[in-house]
Amino acid sequence: MSKKTAGHNGGISAQPHFDQRAGEIQQYGTVNHALPLELEEPVRLEMTEHLNQLLADTMTLRDLYKKSHWQVAGPTFYQLHLLFDKHYDEQAELVDTIAERIQLLGGLSIAMAADVAETTRIARPPRGREEVPVQISRLLDAHKIIIGQCRELAERADQLGDDGTNDLAVSDVLRTNELQVWFLSEHLVHMPLVTARD
User: Fold this and answer.
1) What pLDDT is recorded for position 128?
2) Which of 45, 58, 124, 137 is exposed most, by the fewest CB atoms within 10 A?
3) pLDDT in tens, 127-166
């Protein structure tokens, strides 16, 4: 440290240090050994890998809801505009929950948009606006992928004795996605709005 930036207290200074670079302190795809979780390293490695896939798909679904929220049009605009934003908020909560579980297991959560795009199994939508039934169908397709993952993850976590991941997959992610599927699906029912059928 130069004399200009050094403080009088053993090198401590109020001057910010800009442009710092260094090597990674943990590589993606590894787990550390910080917490006494009584889960062996191979179990934590497998669970964090599955959880990162679920995280990437959940982040994609979250953003798909925001795209739909912004681009929805037509006579159901108001209802769907609000519903899509509510579901976005709920998916955003799940993103944090999944990411924190990965970190708790000693792994590293996927985070950046480019990495998510490379990892997700959910099909990329066009940049333009789609009709409401297509938006909803696209969201339902994404939910189907995540629900399938949740069931597989819960079963595997149970086999490996990872009760925390099993509970997260079922109680948080699966149940939230199932409920959102119900709300979405009702918007695809072909029903007269004014006159009842004979």
Assistant:
1) 96
2) 124
3) 999 999 999 999 999 999 999 999 999 999 999 999 999 9
Which residues are within 8 A (CB) of 19 and not within 5 positions of it... i.e. 6 or more apart? none
3-state secondary structure the chain: CCCCCCCCECCECCCCCCCCCCCCCCCCCCCCCCCCCCCCHHHHHHHHHHHHHHHHHHHHHHHHHHHHHHHCCCCCHHHHHHHHHHHHHHHHHHHHHHHHHHHHCCCCCCCCHHHHHHHCCCCCCCCCCCCHHHHHHHHHHHHHHHHHHHHHHHHHHHHHCCHHHHHHHHHHHHHHHHHHHHHHHHHHCCCCCCCCCC
Entry pTM: 0.90
